Amino acid sequence: MRDPNPTVVLVPGLGMIAWGKTKSESRVTAEFYNCAIEVMRGAEAIDRYEAMDEQEAFDIEYWSLEEAKLRRLPPEKELARQIVAVVGAGAGIGKATALRIVKEGAHAVCVDREAAAAGATADEIVRLHGEGIGVAGTGISNCGPAIGLGCDITNRESVARMLEDAMIAYGGLDAVVVTAGVFVPPDRTGRIKDEQWGLTFGVNVTGAYIVADEANRIFAKQRLPASVVLTTSANAVVAKKGSLAYDTSKAAANHLVRELAVELAPLVRVNAVAPATVVKGSTMFPRERVIASLTKYEIPFAEVESDDALREKLAGFYAKRSLTQLPIEPDDQAEAVFLLLSPRLRKTTGHVVPVDGGLQDGFLR
User: Fold this and answer.
1) Which position among 123, 180, 236, 286 has the lowest Cβ density within 10 Å, counted as fewest Cβ atoms?
2) pLDDT of 82-131, one tens digit each?
3) Rounded percentage of the chain residues whose pLDDT exceeds 90
């Protein structure tokens, strides 16, 4: 028997709600029903509209050729029907994660402090996977497999508004991934100002908590299994000079994962990925910081070299410090995030998965 639940619900005084396995399917359902309404209006303009009888409708619905066509459909992808908000999707790990999960059937709510960057990632996904439609009253330009939204995760009202827009666009939320982070280098004397310390913890710890806490309001109402994935760092367990605020904030984020896993159980799983230094595509590595690092480690370079060439040199240096001697890239983190979101690791919660190429200093003690 097919699913007996309605795919179109009419609410007097409000309008029509159409349902589907995907945003595209729900949109097509709505378009079909709009066409049906026009047929009814046309019939009533002449005489009256009369629907086919139940037997005829049944014969069409369960037509043998239709059954054969349905059996030939490919199986659903691992993240099919899942709505995932990726915070930090404008670049780096967040962008790679959004692109990765949509390939597995998820709908991605691309979120970034820079709304234009979030929109660019969403537009790229739509170009790759199909067009969508706008959502009235939200400023959302497309609503297919991805949308782009701006959000300041240190501001609870901004986070709540972003999640509300996501709910309006897709009708639910299954997971949030927080890849947003900030690194504030110390001054030339090695000190960091109090306001910079506050900003670091505000984004890397408090912001991640606010996103998880606001998302949990939705999860609790839905009463469906859900997932939260944060991004911490290998620096959380490897102390080094020059990144006091960042390293300390990531250590706090590691423990935030464990605390949230306890607080949100049994409905919500909370895990994290801990990358080693990701230079490629990272907004935390502008040209000036790359040059400063190359100078610090006495790696030869020329001022005329492109940003990408300089980043490649620095990434290669970091790679040589790991056991695998492979550069750590955004796609590596995205793969780990996908696994944590997928049913494959549905019994894993409260854990931080290192994706660092094998840093001996970062081994569990």
Assistant:
1) 286
2) 999 999 999 999 999 999 999 999 999 999 999 999 999 999 999 998 76
3) 64
Q: Nearest CA to 108 among 354, 334, 350? A: 334
Active-site residue numbers?
A: 246
Residue 130 burial (CB count, 10 A): 14
Specify the CATH number for the domain of residue 259: 3.40.50.720
Domain-located, residue 287: no
Paired strand residues for 146:
108
Note whether 222 and 178 are same-domain residues. Answer: yes
The Cβ of residue 350 has, within 10 Å, a number of other Cβ atoms equal to: 15
3-state secondary structure of 234: helix
Report d(CA 120, CA 315) in Å as an integer: 26
Q: Closest Cα to residue 102, out of 119, 118, 86, 120?
A: 86
Assigned token pair, 225: 């299994």
Structural domain for 37, as ranges: 8-71
> Are 195 and 48 within one domain?
no
Q: What's the pLDDT tens digit per position in 213-240?
A: 999 999 999 999 999 999 999 989 988 8
Residues 66 and 100 in one domain: no
**Residue 143 — pLDDT band, cuts 50, 70, 90?**
low
**Residue 89 contacts residue 179 (beta carbons within 8 Å):** yes
Last residue of one domain, picked from the residues 49, 71, 93:
71
CB-based burial, 6-32: b 16+ in 10 Å, e otherwise: eeeeeeeeeeeebeeebbbebbebbee
Q: What total of structural domains would you count in the chain?
A: 2
Q: What is the CA radius of gyration of the chain?
A: 24
Strand partners, 112: 150
Mean pLDDT score, 329-333: 93
Is 23 within 8 Å of 107 (Cβ atoms)?
yes
Mean per-residue pLDDT of the chain: 90
- Residue 212: which residues within 8 A CB-CB, separation 6 or more? 176, 178, 228, 230, 260, 264, 270
Percent above pLDDT 70 for the chain? 95
